[in-house]
Design a protein that fits this description.
By secondary structure, this protein is α/β, with parallel strands linked by helices. Helices cover 26% and strands 28% of the residues. It is globular.
Length: 318
């Protein structure tokens, strides 16, 4: 899948609100306080590693991006002296597809399953990429398959899933994040593809706790919103928040299969990795933005910040 997800999903994990996901030279632990939309990462390392996506005014990936085309604003300090700058496309993927199979998605359930089937069966996965599938409804989430879910047999199992019951969305996100955390490796990029309408009706975990667990996993989330296009809802707002905080994308089911997967592919093509020395600061939390320096029409997506204290990675972790 390096063709599809590695070169396209990296952003699917390398993605756009400051993807300080590997934001720190150490494994970053993300946190999100209930009262703030900023993602928080913790690290004691002296180097910041930031994965991001660059697009032009037409939302097309920028292929010839140079390191003098942008600057990082870290806690309002402009960073131009980078230790390294490269494409972030040589990495293995650990992708979890999370399927909402609850009562509220019944109007779009067949379309949802068709999209998941296409993702699994038609994407050019790499042999080293991991693909797992979970579904959630009723009282919790269940693993459909883990690790290698690319066979026709698995696709047929997914197509036969039944729908109905309550919606434990936040609990399912926690379960998914825990799976990714437990098998975390320095050279593997975690990604979650969430198909849902964003409505939660029964979870034990509150929204902010689910966000904290997602942030700790460092996963980039691509959300496929099952609500009707143009219809404002609390569910859509929740899904948008999940995608933005992780540096991923919010996509609509009504955009069609091709558009959904092209968006992921475009991200993978434009994923970049930049590293720089951790700036001196009196504050623990560092907000992060990327701004254009020459062509002001360029747009950048990345995670929103990191916490410089605490770390679970060694300083040599990539």
């Amino acid at each position: 899948m390096r063709n599809w997800l590695s070169h396209r999903f990296l952003p699917l994990f390398l993605l756009t609100t400051v993807f300080a996901g590997h934001l720190i030279h150490a494994q970053t632990t993300q946190r999100d306080s209930e009262g703030s939309s900023a993602s928080t990462y913790r690290s004691s390392a002296s180097e910041v590693r930031l994965v991001f996506f660059a697009t032009d005014e037409h939302n097309h990936p920028v292929e010839g991006l140079q390191q003098d085309d942008f600057a990082v604003v870290d806690n309002e300090r402009v960073i131009r002296d980078f230790r390294s700058f490269s494409r972030a496309d040589l990495i293995k993927l650990d992708v979890v597809v999370l399927i909402d199979a609850s009562e509220s998605v019944l109007p779009h359930f067949k379309e949802e399953i068709a999209d998941v089937h296409q993702l699994i069966s038609q994407s050019p996965w790499n042999p080293e990429d991991r693909l797992s599938v979970l579904s959630f409804s009723g009282m919790g989430a269940q693993i459909v398959c883990s690790g290698d879910c690319r066979s026709l047999f698995i696709a047929d199992r997914i197509a036969s899933l039944s729908a109905g019951g309550a919606t434990p969305l936040f609990d399912a996100l926690e379960v998914t994040a825990k799976i990714l955390i437990e098998r975390k490796q320095p050279d593997v990029w975690p990604v979650i593809i969430l198909f849902s309408d964003g409505d939660d009706t029964i979870s034990k975990a509150p929204f902010h706790e689910a966000l904290e667990k997602i942030q700790a996993s460092e996963a980039q989330i691509y959300v496929v919103d099952l609500n009707s296009l143009g219809q404002a809802s609390n569910g859509t707002a929740i899904l948008q928040r999940i995608a933005d905080d992780s540096g991923g994308r919010h996509l609509g089911i009504g955009q069609g299969d091709v558009e959904v997967f092209n968006s992921v592919t475009s991200d993978l093509h434009s994923a970049r990795l930049v590293t720089y020395a951790l700036p001196e600061s009196g504050s623990t939390f560092h907000s992060v933005r990327i701004l254009p320096t020459h062509n002001l029409t360029l747009q950048f997506r990345c995670r929103r910040g990191y916490d410089r204290s605490g770390s679970s990675h060694s300083e040599n972790s990539p």
